[in-house]
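Standup notes
- DV: blocked on the single-chain target, sequence here:
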Amino acid sequence: MSLRCLIVDDEPLAHGVITEYAKDIPFITIAGHCYRATEALDFLSKQQVDLIFLDIRMPKLNGLDFLRALQHKPLVIITSAYEEYALESFDLAVCDYLLKPFRLDRFLKAVNRALELYQFKKQNHAVADIEKITQKSEARISIKVDKKHILLNIEEIQFLESLGNYVKVWKDKEFLLTPRTLGSFEEQLPSGFIRIHKSFILNKKYVNYLEGNTIVLKNGEEVPIGKNFKCIIKQLLNMED
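- DV (later): unblocked, structure below
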């Protein structure tokens, strides 16, 4: 198994380091080099990759805004000289954050993690294909709580709330705390779940009504709507432009 990779960085030196490291890793194939995020958008419109090595501070369009603009996101490893973007990056479900300059051993750890996530995604997609022929009520998701893995019926989840490197999975006014990112849940949950805030994903079936910038659930719980997610109101109400 090989991961097709794209390097997106405005520094030629960074391209050289990653390319050199990749030569020693049999499952990494460098499929392209882009020196601007805008150039990468064009590249991805024509070719598919499995993993992007992404810098953050680049001219015109920075790496995180580029990542937000992608409709179909490959796996991403951030390669940056600035550590202050780490929390924001992980909220966008990147699989690792390499702080420049990084050594081969640290690079190897990051790409091994990417490979594991890639294999996990492929397995989940296969499971999802099987679940399409089963009833929705039977769909389940496994979450880790403390040292246990708990199986939940997906339709019982009312909403999910980000809490640093953890996510609160809310069900019946109680929550389970699991060490995952909100973005990883967003990729796994069915279409009935939608992101309404940078820190919240909501199950539409539990919506009662909207009031201002707040969604009130059928059990009385209130969930905020983020300022960048206003269009979600139309989706909730099945409205058209």
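- Follow-up: The radius of gyration is 19 Å.
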